[in-house]
Amino acid sequence: MTNANALPHRKSLRPALLWAAGCLIMLGLLVSLLPGARLNSSVLAMLPTQTLGAIPPALNDGFMQRLDRQLVWLVSPGKKPDPRVAQQWLTLLQRSGALSEVKGPMDAAGQQAWGEFFWQHRNGMIDPATRARLQNGGEAQAQWVLSQLYSAFSGVSGKELQNDPLMLMRGAQLALAQNGQKLRLMDGWLVTQDDAGNYWYLLHGELAGSSFDMQQTHRLVTTLNALQATLKTHYPQAQLLSRGTVFYSDYASQQAKRDISTLGVATLLGVLLLIVATFRSLRPLLLCAISIGIGALAGTVATLLFFGELHLMTLVMSMSIIGISADYTLYYLTERLVHGGENSPWQSLDKVRNALLLALLTTVVAYLIMMLAPSPGSARWRYLPPWG
């Protein structure tokens, strides 16, 4: 009498070889893709895809990457203007060497460069009021130019009138002054005052490297926090406001690392303890680990092929594949535990195949539907689980 639990050699060897070959191919792809891949922790990558008109995508990506490197500070000495506090913060930033560029007060060269930029692009910066005056023949614009010429407070020079007879740049600058009237120049600094009467000095900086480097971003934020503490020791009354995507990216990456270390480890240990307590054997544990590993391998390879990078939130949100992969393994192992003495492994697989395929189909369809959302960052983590 033949043993019902014996594996038919011809029936099992070919699928096993094909499965092993597929896993080896995915492993080879992962090894080839990893050197050029990167771990993205930028929060801007989670925003919906937007383009700046009809410009090339490469230029749009470059603009977003540059925006990702920008940093802005507002330093307040209190209710009395005192540029020494802002100058101290500027000196601390420059000495730290953590930033490629730090700007504080505007010198004469900076103001001239600012004026040259607006002069060069004056036609593209026409304000809505000037556009309205230029309609219907431009008679209203001519009257406005005359009002500027005969005004005792306008200060129109002959050179300005010769170079810009329609005074397009003057109109644009007046509109900017009205929109940004809270900022003004004091001792070369851009200064604003809040409702409580506190003065705030504006500083701008730019990262030296890519904000996608999670370790570099965390070191920078740690350095800036230490510099802020140093500033407080010299000026206890000083206040500092910091803005930049690097702060949000660092917070998100550190939170994601904590989630991975707690939720991921807890989920994995829970699954392993459940298997050991239920089956009292290491073989189901090994099969479950192989199932989870192959799922993670397939999802990672698919994500790198489509995007060339892994977002940190992908790793956090895709931890669900651990439980899903373990569930599929547990279905089969439970069937073998109950009816292993009566049926062969292939017969047990036939009994649970329909249920496993239905569960797999509903899970994949759910993730594929979520791919229709416009957010590219969430699309990254929606690619990994269905492929896994």
Automatic annotation (TrEMBL):
According to its record, how does it sit in the membrane? Answer: Multi-pass membrane protein
Q: Where is the Membrane transport protein MMPL domain?
A: 253-374
One GO location term (cellular component): plasma membrane
Give the range the annotation lists for the signal sequence.
none
Just give the chief location class: membrane
Entry keyword set: Cell membrane, Membrane, Transmembrane, Transmembrane helix
Q: What domain of life does the UniProt record list for this protein's source?
A: Bacteria
List residues traversing the bilayer.
Answer: 260-279, 286-307, 313-334, 355-373
Q: Where does the record say this protein resides?
A: Cell membrane
Asked if the Swiss-Prot or TrEMBL record annotates the protein with the keyword Transmembrane helix, the reply is yes
Protein name as annotated: Putative inner membrane protein
Q: Which organism is it from?
A: Enterobacter cloacae
